[in-house]
What does this fold into?
Amino acid sequence: MTYNELLDSRRSVRAYSDKKVSREDVEAIIAAAQKAPSWKNSQTGRYYAVMDKENLELIKSNCLPPFNQKNSANAPVLIVTAFERGIAGFDNDGQAVNELGNCWGAYDLGLQNMAMLLKATELGLDTLIMGIRNENELRSRLSIPETQAVVSVIALGYRDIDPKMPPRKKLEEILKIT
Ligand SMILES: Cc1cc2nc3c(=O)[nH]c(=O)nc-3n(C[C@H](O)[C@H](O)[C@H](O)COP(=O)(O)O)c2cc1C
It folds into this structure.
C-alpha cells in the first residue's frame, strides 16, 4: 500500500467482527509506535493491551460510556495509551521548558499513536480512538501508576462496516503560507 492509500483507507471503525487479532500483530503495532520521534528521544508513551476475553469485557463495561461500549463491541483488543508525565517538555531539574508543559508528552503520544493506526491499517486491521473513557477505572483496573497520564483507549479489530471519510476542512482554513 502506498502512503496515500494507507492514509485514505484508515477510518474510525465503530462496528467490529468477532475475528481475533494475533499477539504478533499487537506487538508489530506497538513496535511501529517506537519508531516515532519524541522529545529528546525520551519515548514516554506507555501501552496496556487488553486481549483476555474476561478482562476485555470488564474494561469495556466499567471504563467506557455506553456509546463507546457499543462502538467497540466485539473488538478483540483494547489498547490503553498513557505517557510518563514530567519528562517530555521538561528539563533535567523537572522544570517545564515552555508554556506547554505536559502537552509535549501528549504530543509525542499522538505521534506514536498515528504510527500505530497506520501500521494497523497496513496489517488489514481497523481502529477507533476513544477519548471519552473513565480515567480512574482504567488506572485502578490496569494498575497504571500515578506517574503516567492516562490518555486514550484504542479499539483494534476487523471491520464489520465500511465507513466513508468524514469531510475535512478546506486547506485554506488550516494553512497559512506567508
Ligand atoms: C483524540 C480523539 C478522541 C476521539 N474520541 C472518540 C470517542 O470517544 N468515540 C468515538 O466514537 N470516536 C472518537 N474519536 C474518533 C473521531 O470522531 C474521528 O477520528 C473523526 O470523526 C474523523 O473520522 P476518521 O477517524 O474516520 O477520519 C476520537 C478521535 C480522536 C483523535
